[in-house]
Amino acid sequence: MNGDKLLEIKNLTVHYESFDATVHAVENLNLSLRHGETLGLVGETGAGKTTTVKSVMRILPDPPAKIVSGEILFDGQDLLKLSVKEMRKIRGKQISMIFQDPMTSLNPVMTVAEQIAEVIRLHEKCSKKDAHKKACDMLELVGIRPERGSDYPHQFSGGMKQRVVIAMALACNPRFLIADEPTTALDVTIQAQVLELMKRLKAQYQTAMIMITHDLGIVADICDYVAIMYAGEVVEYGTREHIFNHTGHPYTRGLFACIPDIFTDQNELEPINGLTPDPTQLPEGCRFHPRCPHATERCAKEHPENIELAPGHFVACHLANKGGNENA
Amino acid sequence: MPNTLLEVKHLKKYFNTKAGLLHAVDDVSFSIAKGETLGLVGESGCGKSTIGRAILRLHEPTSGEVILDGTDVTKLNKQELRELRRKMQIVFQDPYSSLDGRKSVFESIGEPLVIQKVCKSKAEYEKRVYELMETVGLAERLVNAYPHELDGGRRQRVGIARALALNPSFLVLDEPVSALDVSIQAQVLNLMQKLQKDLGLTYLFISHNLSVVKHISDRIAVMYLGRMVEFSDCRALFKNPLHPYTKALLSAVPIPRLDVKQERILLEGDVPSPVNPAPGCRFASRCASCMEICREKQPELQEIEPGHFAACHLLND
Amino acid sequence: MSVIAKQTKTAPKKRSKFQETWRRFKKNGRAVVGLAIVAILLLAAVLAPIISPYGPNDQNPRNRLQGPSAEHWFGTDELGRDILTRIIYGARISMSVGLIAICISLIGGVALGAVAGYYGGALDNIIMRCMDVLLSIPTILLNISIVAALGSGLENVMIAIGVSSIPGYCRIVRASILSLREQDFVEASRAAGASDFFLITQHILPNCLAPLIVQATLRIGAAILSCASMSFLGLGIVPPTPEWGSMLSTGRDFLRDAPHVCIFPGLAIMAAVFSMNLVGDGLRDALDPKLKD
Predict the structure, then answer these.
(1) From start to end of B51-145, where are the E strands?
(2) B194: nearest CA partner in chain A
(3) Can you state the angle between helices C260-287 and C17-27, rounded to 10 degrees?
(4) In a domain, B174, yes or no
(5) I need a surface site. Which of A204, B45, B221, C153 has the fewest CB within 10 A?
């Protein structure tokens, strides 16, 4: 398609190996992202969202995690082939990451300005003073008064801490930002503030972003593209409009049906039956078939390939073309 | 209100902290009818969980009355309270810390029966536990399982079964689905609704998730910093929020639809500290339409429309 | 009615806590070995007069400091007494000192720690400051002063050793309780009407068992050695009485010429401590459902 790709993940497979079982955390995953775009990575606990982005950052705990196969091309360069030293240069400078819990991602014994300045000095040659100055500018950018730079993390509230974390992540103008559930730990009104801030900064700096979330509301708000993950695989991928208005996969549809709608009165929700499969013993065929209301014999035997429903809208389901589940 | 099961009058709960008096719950009154679900919404630190626990006297209320079925819970002595505990139970948020890791499913569910010594024989006790497991949809084979072997949804079902063991009429549900994945959340919500219908339960449903609260509640109370700011029928609240905080809260909920464009009301700053709060409206520091009087006088809850209460000076003429 | 019928047929049998623990304990090979050694030591202590080849105080000056032989398996000591016999008799004293002292400190420490942690406030302050005072006095000095106050004798030595190790348990229990007290499952139990006693014994103590068991089994060895040093100072067990610690300390003088006089009592202490540790670890794992199977 048009534009060059900033990030391309090809056939990524990650396993966690313990002595008696192998967890298939991510299996044969393909994703790509262009400059300035935001991709939402949606799925439930254990779907492999965090494992995917951690492999991009190469910060998976090894052992037990093992990247079995695949390529992660960042600007045409395979990140998995880089040396540790080269990778370190990319982390924080080109790609940076925001974690879920702002309480634990800051060092409690350093002032926030020091922590931001540290990141800057790691990647840019500048004096301590300049770094500090830049750190204060970053704080201002995320809406914190620069004089608060000399405060310690515990003097900030949760929302403010997450702003500091965002400032730290953006300090070196990365081209690519990974946000792992950045607002899950925050209250609704604070979440709204942080989301608005992220939207503004993204537009200002044209940063590409992968946003991990389980909240489809946030996806509707901030993402251009969406990938729905289930049990280590992407089951549906497309633009936001594709996913929301032309939902193709029964799992995605199930996710929508699970969320109580604020505008209508429903008597009962339609939950997805059953539980997410044990990642050490994944079902044969389509991984979703034991929970799928439309499953056929074929689903139990044959692993579904990606079907392109519309240009750029991929669904991994045997029934996608037949409209077999349009009745939902 | 006909058939009132629970009535809370001027409930206050203050905690002594090093920094001063923490006003966790400040003069809150409401009532719940039999078979009704009252949703209690608010952000962290607004005192919603404290209300739930003060009603059950897991925290001793500082002052106020809690009348359950005609008895004032706050005035009972230890023995009477123990008796009354059969009528009211609680389900907790975190299915990981709400179960004792050293007790099997059987022991956890059966514990209230042991404590209250309600079963005359061992056979009756076992039968009751199996019955409860069936009620909440737990397979019998899990009877010897330990919490760490169960997923979040099943653990929460154990928590619910334990709360139901004594046949209570009133349940405090303290964020019962917040820690669960969406697909499991829907299963548990459906279970709660089914149980309410089958057993005629009355719920106080505490949550920060507005869409969940809307789904399950008949009426909703919105809390901010220890005070109740709005109280209304569920539908009226979502259609016509009166308090500026409620408006901001509703507008901040991310909506999983593309056809609805939200006008977000962004609140400035953070929730102020509940320790020694300033006089006047608690929301004044973040309110866009704050007036002089808001910083001086605390607004009282007033009936603006029939059955729709709000505490805001803007609504007084 | 169908529920009951079904239940009796298909429902898995509910196992009792004891059966469950024993089943898991048995699976742990090392723990079973430990239990066997403990059993042998205890049996030896009980059956001492029957199984030992000589009397514990039978002297034979002609056979002084003899190495191990067919007649004296573990050799003889400086007065020609049979070391094997004295070790078997010594098991009576050493094992009981170890076990009883630990029991005293466990009971005292757990009770005080539970009260301090659960009720908090002024009571907590008083108890913990007392513990700090106990901790600030060197153990041996504390033991000596307690025995001096109570008078010498085996029972008083046990009490002294027990009391001086109370603070360790007390702190462990208090710290665990402080974090457990706020857990939702404790609240849930309270909401069901449970008394403080029920909460402490049913929920809180079982959850701080692991560090307690480890501490207790490690301290048994220390208690046996403390007892020895007390004997050495002339407080507690009086010389002719066979006791592992004092056998070890008298044997020191002959270490160069007759090392076996030290080696065998030392091995006995080691076996006791080691086996207790194995049993303790096994018990800890067996009681923890998370490590099941």
Answers:
(1) 63-68, 71-72, 88-91
(2) A268
(3) 130
(4) yes
(5) A204
Position B95 in a domain: no
Based on C-alpha coordinates, what's the Rg of chain C? 23
Nearest to C4 among B86, B88, B127 (CB): B127
CB contact under 8 A, B115 and C289: no
Same domain (yes/no): B176, B251: yes
- If asked whether residues B158 and B221 sit together in one domain, one would say no
Residue that finishes a domain, picked among B115, B136, B167: B167
B278 in a structural domain: yes
Domain count, chain B: 2
B179 and B197 in a single domain? The answer is: yes
Q: Tens-digit pLDDT profile for chain B (317 aa)?
A: 568 899 999 999 999 888 888 889 989 999 999 999 999 998 888 888 899 999 999 989 999 999 998 889 999 998 999 989 999 999 998 878 889 888 889 999 999 999 998 888 889 999 999 999 999 988 888 888 888 888 888 899 999 999 999 999 999 999 898 888 888 889 999 999 999 999 999 999 999 888 899 999 999 999 999 999 999 998 889 889 999 999 999 988 888 888 877 778 888 777 788 888 888 898 988 888 888 888 888 898 889 988 899 999 988 76
Which CATH number is B268's domain given?
3.40.50.300
Amino acid (one-letter) located at B309:
F
Domain co-membership, B176 together with B254: yes
**Mutation target among B181, B196, B197 for the A interface, most CBs of A within 10 A:** B181
CA-based angle A53:A54:A55, to the nearest 5? 90
Nearest CA distance, C22 vs chain B (angstrom)? 15
Residues B156 and B174 occupy one common structural domain: no
* Structural domain that includes position B247: 4-87+168-315
Residue A79 gets which letter from DSSP? G
Neighbours of A201 (CB within 10 A): 18
Mutate which: A100, A188, A216, A265, vs B, most B CBs within 10 A: A188
**Best residue of B83, B85, B98, B100 to probe chain C, by most C CBs closer than 10 Å:** B100
pTM for this model (two decimals): 0.83
Contact B92 C10 (CB under 8 A): no
Nearest-by-Cβ selection for B182 from A160, A245, A259: A259
Q: What would the two tokens of residue C37 be?
A: 């050694």
| Contact predicate B52/C187, CB 8 Å | no
The reply to whether residue A241 touches residue B258, judged by beta carbons under 8 angstroms, is: yes
Give the one of B187, B210, B254 whose C-beta lies nearest to A218's C-beta: B254
| C-alpha span between A252 and A234 (Å, rounded) | 11
Q: Do B183 and A272 make contact, defined as CB atoms within 8 angstroms?
A: yes
Separation between Cα atoms, residue B92 and residue A244, nearest integer Å = 33
